[in-house]
Amino acid sequence: MEAVKNDAANDEGGELNYRQPPHNLEAEQALLGAILVNNEAAQKVQGFLLAEHFYEPVHGRIYESVLKLMDKNQIADPVKLKPYFENDEALTDVGGARYLVRLAASATTIINAEDYGRTIYDHAMRRALIQIGETMVNDAYDAPVDVEASEQIADAEKQLFDLAEMGQAETGAQAFSKALRTAVENIENAYKDPDSLSGVTTGLAALNDKIGGLHNSDLMILAGRPAMGKTALATNIAFNAAKRYADDRLAGIPPEKSKGAVVCFFSLEMSADQLAARILSDRANLVYDGPEPIQSHKMRQGSLDQRQFEAIARAAIELEDVPLFIDDTPALTIAALRNRARRLKRQHNLGLVVVDYLQLLRGSGKGTAADSRVQEISEITRGLKGLAKELHVPVLALSQLSRGVEQRENKRPMLSDLRESGSIEQDADMVMFVFREEYYKEKEEPSQSDQEKHVQWQAEMENLYGKAECIIGKQRHGPVGTVHLAFEKDCTRFTDLIEEDHLPERFD
């Protein structure tokens, strides 16, 4: 009870020779007294207050003992606790087990129990913050040669995020009735929603109908061979979600009821300005009524007329308030990505994470490259799934497919084509493939000397032009199958294939 004696010295006008960590012993005593008089006071604080949050260790042990007795459906009062603390040396200087009686005798009403608990919790967080700061300083001074400064920064960010989240949400097992209420609420919200969505919108009605939107805590993989349009589709989805969030905000819809989301796009392949140019090209074409679309490569070259430039300027003004963040840091580690996502979650209420693409992420870097590539991919997919659950947001990660697709006559991808690790399929809640048969058919152009074959090829190309498939290869929440989309190559935009709504779906 050294802390109690030190506080008594302060009350008598004595001075301490060192600066004490933040604490409030009076609040701890008042809370414990209220709990010993009426155990219902403990129910007001046990959802967020732990034994280790008490500054005085013996107070923490008293609090923990009370909770244990309550778990056994027993009344926790000084009489019941006395046997546990009769020989406690920490209580000797203040009267032994009789200290419990003094606590109960000086107790006030339980009405303020939660306020006392919050005060104790707040001081505990401040002490933990001091500890993190001291650790950061010591680690920076005595850093091992093989530890980069960026790793220490990432570790410090994780500690700060964990501290900030501590006590914010209930952890551990929960009653089925509570989970059932949450499930029913989600179903009710989807039932009442005009879009019939239970998750974040993709902006594509056909895809929304198939998957119900992007669901919180889900890891979704979007895979395909090069030139299929993976990045284009992911960019479209990211922008559509962010735009819906901005539109809902203007309409006065609260964030928790919005079908959009604040989005962070981790672009490990393209730069932020290239990604922005793609989105700008897409939006500019929606307000441009010229004979030819505004192509992104012509934007880079500056080959624009006055009307096209004005359309781009109007689109840029429209996009300024869209909550879409782009992080184009190359060779990002999974740990650094998690820390940056956590930061955006706290600062901007992040609601969707997109990663382009997961094979460009780095793991912890342990082990040899020859033996650990599969393990590294497994670490990355587990990290992304953990991030989705931790932040309670959907995570959409792009993935490359193996070259085996190119060797088959039917080049539609399958789950077995996922590259480098079976953990991608295992950890993912949903796996989608982008496929454009037009790309492969274009390479099969026969010689014009064989007119019959060339005419047949032209007819097939006309039928395939501007069409794409989003193949749902795995979905934990619904059926697999194929969603038909339209693809505008000039402005890299996927849209609903309105004129082909009658096409039958292909199911595995």
UniProtKB/TrEMBL annotation:
Q: Which family does it belong to?
A: Belongs to the helicase family. DnaB subfamily.
**GO MF annotation terms:** DNA helicase activity; hydrolase activity
Q: Does ATP-binding show up as a keyword for this record?
A: yes
Functional summary from the UniProt entry = The main replicative DNA helicase, it participates in initiation and elongation during chromosome replication. Travels ahead of the DNA replisome, separating dsDNA into templates for DNA synthesis. A processive ATP-dependent 5'-3' DNA helicase it has DNA-dependent ATPase activity.
Q: Which reaction does it catalyse?
A: ATP + H2O = ADP + phosphate + H(+)
Annotated source species: Kordiimonas lipolytica
Q: Name one Pfam family in it.
A: DnaB
Superkingdom of the source species = Bacteria
Q: Subunit structure, per the record?
A: Homohexamer.
Name the chain's protein: Replicative DNA helicase
Enzyme Commission number(s) of this protein: 5.6.2.3
